[in-house]
Write a structure and sequence with these properties.
With 447 residues, the protein is mostly helical. The protein has 17 helices and no strands.
Length: 447
């Protein structure tokens, strides 16, 4: 075959092919996800599965709980899921335009991402989303050929299934009376120096013994104290170490998180958002002709989403004799409100980008979005250094207000770093590694 008739090679999306609104939305999502994830970096998961604002009457802490619950939780991970589905359609179109097979390439890309996600979850932080996305993309991949209308119907079905599962668990809690109660505080056993929670720098065996003793209390104590005992284990593993204890607790928590994602409905929601994103991209969502869609999503999604999610937060925050019913209602309402507000955010950002408003901000967010994988994992590295025993050991000691301040400071640094990086390189360092493994060869990165 002559050179003139060779099939064009397939590689990463070039800078001129990028959709600006996609990059800006991805950058905004990285910020919003970090705001929610910071709670899991800084606090015991026990203090987060209890669906209630912080006790003690501190107005600032309660206000921070409301802000994260209403404006951030579930919204930005929904945006990221939506964008992931859109990206699948973009890549499929590019492969078709070049006459290249799409499925083998995307499978390789997905399995590389799955490996990155597993390494992230087991070696750094249990709350990884990359592994979940890689599994969800395998489910969505065969459906990309379907028409947008069918994809929307399937998306609604998956989301409805998620709501049904959440509602069933809520009903079971009401019937059995097994709603969460705040765990009783348990003082961490002091080491030989007499300082509670301080790692023993001279003898790692003592730390290991204290950890195994605490782990034993999880299974041998009274059931009502299990949550408190597990919180004690987490504090020891993350705040004191040693490494073996951290690895055990992280792996165990990751398994619990995967079980929740699979059985608790969240995974179905992710697949639904993937399918919706694929449908929207097939309908040329970012085309100027869709401006009426963007306006409608912004005008309806923002106020209605905030109102519905505020209702969900209010159901959680107010106690009383019917607390079980309130909690059972709150989660489905929260799920619906988060999708509405997700749509409002997407519409608003798309309008900003199309209208050229706040251009310095949108350009900066686009740089973060173009290096999203690198920034996502960098957040883990920086924050675990701040929270865990191998760094500053702040785990369990950071208030919600301080968490928000940390997110703002770290993300501001990421914005500056991303802008500077892209002056010299075309993609982030981990994006380069991912794409090099996907396309079976080192990709150009320097400008």
């Amino acid at each position: 075959m002559s050179e003139a008739h060779e099939t064009p090679s397939l590689g990463p999306v070039g800078e001129r092919e990028r959709i600006a609104a996609l990059d800006v939305l991805r950058g905004a999502a990285i910020f919003g996800i970090f705001m929610v994830n910071m709670q899991f970096f800084a606090m015991s998961i026990v203090d987060l599965v209890v669906p209630a604002p912080p006790a003690g009457g501190d107005a600032a802490e309660t206000a921070c709980w409301w802000v994260v619950k209403v404006l951030f939780e579930y919204k930005f991970v929904s945006i990221f899921s939506l964008l992931f589905g859109m990206g699948m359609v973009v890549q499929r179109r590019r492969a078709a335009a070049r006459g290249r097979p799409f499925t083998p390439l995307y499978l390789r890309r997905t399995f590389v991402l799955m490996g990155i996600g597993l390494a992230h979850a087991l070696l750094l932080w249990y709350g990884d989303i990359l592994f979940v996305y890689s599994v969800a993309s395998l489910l969505v991949l065969p459906l990309l050929r379907l028409r947008p209308k069918i994809l929307v119907i399937l998306a609604a079905s998956w989301f409805g299934l998620s709501l049904g599962i959440v509602g069933c668990f809520g009903a079971i809690d009401v019937i059995t009376g097994s709603t969460f109660q705040p765990p009783v505080a348990i003082e961490v056993m002091p080491d030989e120096s007499g300082e509670p929670g301080e790692p023993d720098e001279t003898d790692g065996v003592d730390r290991w013994t204290r950890f195994t003793d605490a782990l034993g209390r999880v299974t041998t104590g009274d059931r009502k104290d299990d949550l408190s005992a597990w919180r004690e284990v987490e504090v020891m593993a993350y705040k004191d170490g040693p490494m073996a204890a951290t690895l055990i607790v992280r792996a165990g928590t990751f398994v619990i998180v995967l079980a929740y994602i699979t059985l608790g409905g969240f995974g179905f929601r992710v697949v639904g958002m993937f399918l919706l994103g694929a449908a929207l991209m097939k309908l040329d969502f970012f085309d100027a002709r869709r401006r009426r869609w963007h306006l409608l999503m912004c005008a309806v999604g923002l106020p209605l989403g905030v109102a519905v999610d505020a209702l969900a937060a209010g159901l959680i925050a107010t106690g009383g004799p019917d607390t079980a019913w309130r909690l059972a209602m709150a989660d489905p309402v929260h799920q619906v409100g988060s999708v509405l507000l997700c749509g409002g955010y997407v519409g608003a950002v798309t309008l900003l980008v199309a209208g050229g408003a706040l251009r310095p901000l949108t350009r900066a967010l686009a740089c973060v979005g173009r290096t999203a994988l690198s920034n996502y994992l960098l957040q883990t590295v920086v924050t675990t250094f701040l929270m865990y025993w191998w760094g500053l050991g702040w785990f369990g000691d950071v208030t919600r207000m301080q968490q928000i301040a940390l997110v703002a400071g770290i993300f501001a640094g990421q914005v500056v770093l991303s802008v500077l990086w892209l002056r010299f390189f075309t993609m982030g360092p981990l994006e380069w590694a991912w794409r090099s493994m996907t396309y079976d060869g080192l990709q150009p990165i320097r400008r």
